[in-house]
Structure formats: structure tokens, C-alpha cells
Amino acid sequence: MKIAVIGQSLFGQEVYCHLRKEGHEVVGVFTVPDKDGKADPLGLEAEKDGVPVFKFSRWRAKGQALPDVVAKYQALGAELNVLPFCSQFIPMEIISAPRHGSIIYHPSLLPRHRGASAINWTLIHGDKKGGFSIFWADDGLDTGDLLLQKECEVLPDDTVSTLYNRFLFPEGIKGMVQAVRLISEGKAPRLPQPEEGATYEGIQKKETAKINWDQPAEAIHNWIRGNDKVPGAWTEACEQKLTFFNSTLNTSGLVPEGDALPIPGAHRPGVVTKAGLILFGNDDKMLLVKNIQLEDGKMILASNFFKGAASSVLELTEAELVTAEAVRSVWQRILPNVLEVEDSTDFFKSGAASVDVVRLVEEVKELCDGLELENEDVYMASTFGDFIQLLVRKLRGDDEEGECSIDYVEMAVNKRTVRMPHQLFIGGEFVDAEGAKTSETINPTDGSVICQVSLAQVTDVDKAVAAAKDAFENGRWGKISARDRGRLMYRAPPSPSTRPDPTAT
């Protein structure tokens, strides 16, 4: 089939590439104009293939389609319009022109959550099921007949990014290709959308994302994650606007002990703990926020809110300076509108978007031989100088918040001093058991007491299970790719028991 692809972003690029692999002829690509000197990925890919690319800033004026735009489109002879992701308003003269019409991807299970912020509202409403719809375009707002739908489970701590990256992006690409295949085979259905259960919500903007504290903890959590990362749920506290990210209801075992953070309108003050910022709903239940963006745009760990300035600036070695310059070149390629990348250059204020974060992370990981780096790190260190400091700390292996404090018991054994920890290890820390309960450890050779070790109570077990669950679901190991896990495991030294014995025969 002859197809016109109308849209933008990496999603549009992937749909375009897969349609060409299926053997369809893409006769033209219509995408958004370049922004800050950067072309959209869809347009870039099409230009590489020699496919005509059009970048109209608008398709109509005073309610009428622009004749020149319509003429350029009609000259292509498209049989189907495919709109994988499109932020522009396309006039009906274009939508209804091909003999097969136009199909559109929408990231919700229509008729629920019509509108441009569908993923946000799926999370804000606490939906247990999410998914996407591919529908036949009409003159309404996301009201056309359904062609195809696929659903998925919405996880308790899903954000817009995690839901999109886990399901809506990869499965949406497959769905668009499947929809086009059904059309080419003459098997594509047209199922009218039911009006029962239909909802429409407006675009989420920063000014409308302020947190309403007079609601249960789960509703506050859903509001925060539904606005994470864009536009960001915020509140006013400590005489500034604070934006919260990385919220969870997994607070089992957490004790609200720490520094109080008064929040106007909140049921109770927040509490800054080692785990993050504990917040309360009007039902007295807790939620935990792990990242806070300050009013100046700087992202910090919520646990560091009341701490002073960051650690001292590292002095880079010659080799590290070479790496820094190589990373500077990566930034320069991603930010072509910046004449010179300086230490004060802010990645996002220079025009970078979420797609650029992915590109930066992947290129730097490749440059640094699979260094453990996450998208979150870019948000936490958005200026070039801060990013290099973070990168060097990671390369040196000292990027942790601090050394683990261990209280050892020392014993003299065979003319050697043996040091043994005797506390419980929970959540990355050695701690005493609840109520300082202990038990004797006996030397089996002579019955003497070696030392007193912490005796875990039921509450300690609950804390350990909660910490393990959090590490499994939100820890770094689960976030890095299988490729990077393999690299880390390969680099790990073998244990003594697995080393070959050179004397063995």
C-alpha cells in the first residue's frame, strides 16, 4: 500500500521503519518543523531513505485547509494515512482523502480518557488496566470507530514513562503494523465506540498539576505518578515550589522518623527520612517520594532535602579529562543550538527532551564501556559540570551516598585480629534489633561466648522484607538492561571457591 505517515517522535520513527520492512511504500512523511535546530527523529529517518519529508508549521488558517498544503499532499497519491503520534491538527480534507482513510494511535482504552493526556489520566484515576487503541479518524476528538485495542496491567508504582516504555511504546508499534496489515488484507473492523464509560480530560499543564492534599494517600500517589515526569506534581513548602517524583505506596516497615517538612494544606507535615520524603493523606496513610525538584530546576534525592551543598568538587585526572571532553562532544551533538557546551550548560534548558535523555545515556554508556547509568541520573545532574562530576564518581566507584557504618566485634584468632559485624543488615545498613534484643553466639569448640549478636524481632523481619521488595522493584539492578547486567557480572571477580586450583590434577 502507498502510505503517508503523519506524526513525530521515536514512536513515529519506529512505526515508519516497520511499515517499510513490511513492504509498504511510504510515499511521504509529514512531521513538525525543526525545533532549536533539531529535526524530529521521524523526519531524519525518512530523509535518509530519500522519502519526501514535509514540515508544515500549520495545515489550515481561519478554519480552512491551506490549498498549497493540500496540493502537496494530494500529489503523493497516498492510499492510507497512518498517524502514530501527531500533535498537529490535521484537516478533514487530508484525513478523508485516501481511499482507505486514516488511522490513529491513542494511548488509552477508548472511549475512556479521550484527549492529549490520556496516559496521565489513566494513572491519576488509578485505573488497574491500561492500553492503547487504534481507531479510524473522523471529525470528532478521539471518537472514531475502533480498529484494534490491546490492554495491559497498570502496576501500582507505574509512571507515565514506565507504562509507556514497558507496553505502550513497544506493543503500540506492533499494533500499528498489525492494523495496517489488516487493512491491506481487507480484514480491518470498524467498531463504533460505546458512549458508556466515555471520558474526556484536558491537557495536563504545570499550573494545573498542584497537589490537593485533602484526599487519601493513594489518590495523592496517583496524582504524583500521573504527572511524573511531565508536567510534574507540585506543592509549596519552605517558601518555594517543590515538584515530587518517584512516588510509591510501598511503605511497609518504614518509620516516619526524621526532619519534619511543613506543607501548607497537608493533613500532616511530611517527614524527610533516609528512605525519602514520607507524605500523608487525609486517611493518615503514608506514601513515599524519592525525588524532589527544587524551584531552580535542580533535582535532588528527597532524603537529602535538608542537607547542605553537595560533596566537594572532584579534581579530574588526565584520563578523566579526556573522557569529559568526549562526553562534551556528545552533549554538543545532542544540543546543536548551543554554540559551546560549558560547565553551566543545562541539558533541559538548552532544549533537550526525554528522547534526548535516552540518547545521552546510551551514548555515554557506550563511551564508558557499559557504565551503570540511568535516565534518572541526567535529571539529577542536568548541568554539564554536575553531570561530569556524577559520571566520574561512578567511574571511580564512589558514587554512593556514603560508606556503610559497621560496628565490629574483634577477636584474636591464630595470631590474627578478626573483625565481625554483629548487627542486622537491613536496607543497606547495619542496625540493632528492635528493643536492642541480642542473642549469644557460642564457640562450638569450647562453649565460650564469642559475642552478642542482634536478635531479629517480627518488626525487623517486616522491615527487611519491605527493604528487599523495594530493592527488587525499584533498585538499580532491576532498572539496568540485560546487556549491562551481563557486563557487570562478567567484570565481577570470581569467588575463591570458583577459581581453578593450579595444583589440581
UniProtKB/TrEMBL annotation:
So what EC number does this one have?
1.5.1.6
User: Keywords of this protein's UniProt record, alphabetized?
Assistant: One-carbon metabolism
**Spans annotated as Disordered:** 484-505
- Occurrences of domain Carrier (ranges): 318-395
Q: Which gene encodes it?
A: ALDH1L1
Q: Which family does it belong to?
A: In the C-terminal section; belongs to the aldehyde dehydrogenase family. ALDH1L subfamily. In the N-terminal section; belongs to the GART family.
GO MF terms listed in the record are:
formyltetrahydrofolate dehydrogenase activity
The lineage's top-level taxon is: Eukaryota
- Matching PANTHER family: METHIONYL-TRNA FORMYLTRANSFERASE, METHIONYL-TRNA FORMYLTRANSFERASE, MITOCHONDRIAL
Return any one Pfam family short name: Formyl_trans_N
> What is the recorded name of this protein?
formyltetrahydrofolate dehydrogenase
What chemistry does it catalyse, as a reaction equation? Answer: (6R)-10-formyltetrahydrofolate + NADP(+) + H2O = (6S)-5,6,7,8-tetrahydrofolate + CO2 + NADPH + H(+)
